[in-house]
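Q: Here's a chain of 196 amino acids. Please give me its 3D structure as tokens.
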Amino acid sequence: MVIAPERTQAGPGAGLAGIIADLLGTDLPVRIDCYDGTTVGPPDASTRLVVRSEDAIRYILTAPGELGFVRAYVAGALEIDGDIFDALELRDQMPDVHLGGRQWLAFARLLGTSGFHRPPIPPEEARLAGHRHTRERDAAAIAFHYDVSNDFYRMVLGPSMTYSCAVWKSRDTTLEAAQTEKYDLVCRKLALRPGM
């Protein structure tokens, strides 16, 4: 039998969740559960962001913005349990986030001296050499992109495998329905009629 550690709601000085609360506040759209047993956000939230290890923090601190979050997620150091759209609402609170001296010191205390070393870039991320948008680099990017399996593209693009943005009428719209709505929109814009 495995007994989960008791979670502590964030307050001043309450581990990682305390630092997160200091940066983002406590009125969050999701609950954030941290590897150190602390938590912040609504206890009854339908979506949880799970910070599984210190590497999640390292990714985020060493690649600010969305890249660090994506790397942490792809590497498995950050997990979303619930609706990804709820988790994406955090971005509404993040444009004004600025790490001050107090937060950097708190992270240093939490992570130790090795805390700010960037963890390895996930192998799923393309590593391209050379100047941006040279013929060679762009060819390497295209080759990397198209060597990804069709299973992945089916998951991301839906059964139609349409490489285009879809039209989402609501949060409940399926990917396949959103792709069909996109086809309909294009046909209307082109004034296509049956038999044309």
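Q: Can you summarize the key feature?
A: Strands lie at 8-9, 31-34, 38-40, 48-51, 78-81.
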